[in-house]
Amino acid sequence: MDDESIRRLEGRLGHDWLAEQFEANRTHLRAVAYRMLGSLSEADDAVQESWLHLSRSGTSGVENLGGWLTTVVARVCLDMLRSRRSRREEPVAAHLPDPVEGRVDGIDPEHEALLADSVGPALLVVLEMLAPAERLAFVLHDLFAVPFDEIAPIVGRSPAAARQLASRARRRVQGAATVPDADLTRQREVVDAFLAASRGGDFDSLLTLLDPDVVLRADHAAEQLGASREVRGAPAVAGTFSGRARVAQLALVNGAAGAVWASGGRPRVVFGFTLTRGKIVEIHLVAELARLAELDLVVLDD
What pTM was estimated for this model as a whole? Predict the structure, then answer.
C-alpha cells in the first residue's frame, strides 16, 4: 500500500471515529437544541449543522468532545434564534413550541432526554419570550450545568455578564405572574368562552377574559389574510375579535388549548393562546404553511 492509500485509509478511519462519537452525543445535542429552539425540526437542523461543522474542522486539540459539540450546537441555535427575531415575517411570539410525546414503554432514551427537567409547553412558552442570549445562558447553565466561563464566549460576554443573563432569565421563568397556566381543563374553559363571546359579539365578556396588557400577534401569512401584525391592550384585542371567529373551532394546539380555522379539510389559521391566572395574555395567529404542517392539532368541536 502506497503513502497516498495509507492517508486515504487514515482519513476514512478518522471520519468513522468522528461519526461514532457524534452519534454517541446526538441525543444530548438534540435535547439542548430543542430547549433552545422549541421546535423539533429546527433542533434536528441545528444538530445536523453541528455535525457538518465537526466533519469540516475535525477535533484537533479538543479534549472534551461532548462539551465542544454542546458549544457548537449552542452557537448554531443562538444564530437561529437571532435570525428568527430579525425576520419581520415571523415574530418570535408567533413561534409555538413543539410538543414531545413520550413513549408508552418509557425506555426511549431520546424521548427521556427531551422530557427531562420538566420542560413542558408552559416553560417553553416562557422561554420564547426571552432574548436569545438570555435563553442560551439559562438553558445551558440551569438545565445542562454548563459553567459560565464556557457560556461567556458563546454570547460574547464576560462570565459575570453571562451569569447576569441567566439570572435575569431565571427571574422571568420563576416569576409567578409570567408562568402560563398549565391546567388544560381551565385553558379549554377560557378559550371556549372566548370563542363564544367572539362569535356573539359580546365585547364586555371578551374584556373579562383578556389580561389588560394582552398582545395579539400574527405571522406574515396571517397578515396576508387580513390580520393585524400586532394589537396591544384588552379593548383593542376585544374589538378585533368581537363578532368574528365564527368558524374557528376549539382545538388542542401542541397539547394546549387553542383554536383552528379550517377550510377544505385543512387548517388555514391556528390560534395559540397563552393564559396566566385565568386571563389570556397572548394570542398568536399562525398561518404559514410550513409551520402549520409542524403543529400537533386536535379539533375538539363537533
Answer: 0.56
CA 293 to chain centre: 15
Sheet containing 230-232, strands listed edge to edge, beginning at the edge strand earlier in sequence: 230-232, 210-218, 279-286, 266-276, 256-263, 249-253, 297-299
The full set of domains in the chain, from first to last, is 3-174 (no CATH), 184-299 (3.10.450.50)
Residue type, 282: E
- C-alpha to C-alpha distances, 285 to 38, 106, 223, 271, nearest whole angstrom: 17, 34, 9, 5
C-alpha cell at 30: 438534540
How confident is the model over 119-148, as pLDDT tens digits? Answer: 455 567 677 778 899 999 999 998 888 999
Q: In Å, what is the CA distance from 301 to each residue of 124, 228, 297?
A: 26, 26, 12
CA distance 56 to 36: 24
Q: Is 286 helix (H, G, I), strand (E, B) or coil?
A: strand
Amino acid code (one letter) for 50: S
Rounded distance between C-alpha atoms, residue 201 and residue 213, angstroms: 21
* Nearest of 116, 175, 171, 172 to residue 144 by alpha carbon: 116
First to last CA, the chain: 72
